[in-house]
Design brief:
44% helix, 232 residues, 8 helices, 7 strands, alpha/beta, Rossmann fold, seven-stranded parallel β-sheet
Length: 232
Amino acid sequence: MKILITGTRTGIGKALAEHLLGAGHEVVGCSRKPGSIEHPGYQHHRLDLTDTRELKAMFREVRHAHGYLDALVNNAGTSIMNHFMLTPEESTRRIFDLNFFAVLNCCREAVKLLRHSPQPTTAVLTVSTVAVPWALDGHLAYSASKAAVEQLMRVMSKELADYRIRVNALGLPPVGTVLTRTVPPERIEGLVARQTIKRLCTPADIVGPVDFLIGPQSGFVTGETIFLGGVN
């Protein structure tokens, strides 16, 4: 399979890319900084996903190099933790620019390539968060942007069904990445305590569900947000 993953320099995106490369897939990745993966099956693009011109240029290069895609994984995202009354409008707009509008634009461009895949079904998968169903205080902009993404996935699943494109989201609990390192430990402990499986999520917990949701095994699954860890 030919898979494009956003945000592959570090964390979840890098772990997913390395896992899929190890399974024999071709992976296209991107980030704002230089790539950190060395593999013959990997191609890296350095860009700002919130810049529509740069985003479209990346997809043009992917089309010229590969011709089509079999899956898109929207992993890149950002978050801040702050009371909404103390969050500047500019900060909220930055979060929506990357977490929602960049995802929307990636989907628009990827659909043009997914339609040409030889696979019987293709996939768009977007990373979401338990901050949506839990309505976490201090995360209004972040959770609102991800709630918008989940609705985007549900509507898009209907609009793309005739093109054999399945659209789903994966809701993650706290994961040990750069984003969570800035959160106070007691806050993380409190979130983990709300899960059914009471431990911190790891990238190893994520690769299996991703394999399923972008692969042929989930050929009858679309418009869903699947949460990990157990959401109470």
